[in-house]
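Q: Start with the shorter request: fold the first protein.
A: Done. Sequence, then structure:
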Amino acid sequence: MLCWVCLIGLCSGITLRSKDTAFSFLTSQVLPLFTYEKEYGIHQEDYASGYDVPDWFYEDEEEQPVNADLAVDEEIQSQQEDKTVANETIGTVYSREKLKNPDFLLSKVFVVDSNTNLTSEELAPENLLDTDISLADIKDMSTDKVLIYHTHGSESFADSREGVKEDTVIGVGAYLEELLEQKYGIATYHDETLYDVIDGRLDRNRAYEMAYANVSKILKENPSIEVVIDLHRDGVDEDIHLVTDVDGKPTAKIMFLNGVSRSNLNGEISYLQNPNRMMNLAFSFQMYIKGKELYGDYVRKIYVKSLRFNMHLMPRTTLIEVGAQTNTLEEEKNAMEPLAAILDKVLSKQ
């Protein structure tokens, strides 16, 4: 076991304002690395270059956003009487002038966890709006262009049949693959691996590690892939129903999530480097803007968290939360139709 003197030595060169801050740094940034090495036998340098969410950093649904009072979406707060998130006017278009205002972005577009932040560079419209996300060969069906996978593939819905893969988020991903290929001519690879089930038991503590290893292999073996989608469903209170109407169909709402590898306490998280952070933010942002334009409140605010969620794997990587456990399978699959249309338009620059 390392002594406290050794731990303090590791922090040399770091200016800390108080003993409390020093202890917080040690427990949040140093001790987890040693804990991981002790439990799994992997050294820090391997951890630094690998996956990003070990068990002590497990996704916490209770994290409070800095720019909302009680919940991830202000729309949820405004519908407390019937607990159903109602539809707003279809076709919400934001002017560039509005999108140049950081306060507008932080109130209308992004929800930022209180333990992280977005920089002025990340909020600049020339980076979010003007970055070219499109792919000239997106309609070349000879090789796969999009990868869909599921870090939490066992996630199910209100009416899912137990043990039926087609009733989980994997079944929803299969429908998205079908739409992209058959309706839009975008060749898609769907990885149906269960990363959150180990030895037949649900175990999400190492799901991101397991996903990182296999998805990295898939990308290496399929160099034509240029878009990566980690498809999830959200977890909400049982009396919240994230549903809207799209083309007369009850449709689960979607939310894009970004990890910025930055903590308010310690700044950039060096062992979670993500050189594709800005491109991924722009990808989510442009899909959000297109989704608002075409489908109104079908798209929820973009959620920004401090970690990385394997989004460093390549540019144009996104994590999408589709509805929640309170949605039906039909609502979830209906949500893939506008999502496929949004992806087609953004990647084809329509």
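Q: Next, the second protein, separately.
A: Sequence, then structure:
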Amino acid sequence: MSSVPLVVCLMGPTAAGKTALAIELARRIPVGVISVDSALVYRRMNIGTGKPEPALLAEVPHRLIDVREPWESYSAGEFVRDARTAIAEVVAAGRVPLLVGGTMLYFRSLWQGLSALPEGDSEVRAAIDRRAAAIGWPAMHAELARIDPRSAERVHPTDRQRIQRALEVWQLTGLPLSAQQGRALPPGDLRFLRISVIPADRQLLHARIEARLVDMLARGFIGEVEELMQLPEMRPDRPAMRAVGYRQLWGMLAGDYARAEAERRALAATRQLAKRQLTWLRHEACEQTLAMEAADLPGAVEATLRSHGVQDAISASSG
């Protein structure tokens, strides 16, 4: 097994301090940081995604940041392909791949592998979109619940892209998407060390989420969304606009509600995201779980890495 590359996965809910931790680790040991975040893949979305500042990215490059325009889609399958390429590049450079983020679907797709699902069919998707325009996406979600209840449980009733894909797979194959995803075999050419950073005090995490939103608004988050709205390719149903904060500020700027309501909705959505992330993490068999509040998180991660066979890399960085 020692010849199989070790990939370190650093996970946690939003606002847990994962980015700062990854940057500090990169200053201490030879790692190559790979982002696992469905919002950071988008260009032009910097403030509201918590994207590291350019100076930090220059010091500690992050792969899989700014790889799509905000009107483009990016699937779990594309992430797996890109992440495996990035992992190979980091290993070839003699470094330890450090995957950092909170998009748990991306992590799980990488660990478990992806089923050989059918390619998208434009005619089938167009037909699904026409029906959704007539009855609405919540009604389409209800249809999905009848044919594939397991997938419907994991998809929000207004998540157009994922509802469309599940219905598309059903129409193309006659089998539920959830059943086909279960057929995937985990890749055997990589070893994964999963480290989760979670709050011992949920209220502290909520306070961090609120403070971060206040900071983002002070740094121009609303202006960033205004600029996105002015792009001719952008619409509120684009995949990037599922990102928390963006969706709520778009509604405010479109005149649907006042700023105070937008901030309330953004805060509530971010807390719900953190709750979902923590639920995912509770169901994952992580090799190490660390408290977000720990006094020396980088030191704790370093100790975990030593205990799982990366002593040589750590020693090389200090030599």
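Q: Describe the second briefly.
A: Residues 35 and 64 are 6 Å apart (CA to CA). The longest strand covers residues 191-198.
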